[in-house]
Specification:
This protein is 64% helix and 8% strand. It contains 6 helices and 2 strands. The protein has helices spanning 2-24, 28-32, 36-50, 57-64, 72-84, 106-120, and strands spanning 88-92, 100-104. Strands 1-2 form a two-stranded antiparallel sheet. The longest helix is centred in the N-terminal third of the chain and has 23 residues, at 2-24.
């Protein structure tokens, strides 16, 4: 029974440590965890990558709408800044030439994968 009560303590402790480590780095994780809107975008982009699906800017705007009231110009600015930093890329959709897909760059995938493994290992 004591083990059940230790798990929340371990999770809280690890989350606090994770925040302090991420703050010191200048990477995609820090960029996308800056606020709830960016974090939601980050997770949708990565989920599309790991699910081998495409997500375009319009899909992303619709997906984050329930959790964020970000305007389309602001959304586009966040994405453009992430692209400039090398965290994402835009590719033309093969079927709809007017649409741009948002894809995670290799560095973002690598950093997320390493973070996920390091995040889960102490809790398991």
């Amino acid at each position: 029974m004591k083990k059940v009560f230790k798990l929340p303590e371990k999770i809280c402790s690890h989350m606090l440590q994770d925040i302090s480590v991420i703050i010191l780095n200048n990477n995609s994780i820090k960029y996308f965890r800056k606020d709830l809107t960016r974090m939601t975008m980050w997770l949708f982009i990565l989920n599309a990558h790991f699910s081998d699906k495409k997500i375009n800017i319009e899909d992303l705007a619709r997906a984050i709408a329930p959790t964020s009231k970000v305007s389309k110009p602001s959304l586009r600015l966040i994405l453009e800044n992430a692209k400039y930093k090398g965290y994402i890329k835009f590719t033309k959709d093969i079927l709809d030439k007017r649409s741009w897909n948002v894809e995670a760059e290799d560095i973002t995938i690598k950093e997320f994968t390493e973070w996920a493994h390091s995040y889960l290992a102490p809790i398991e």
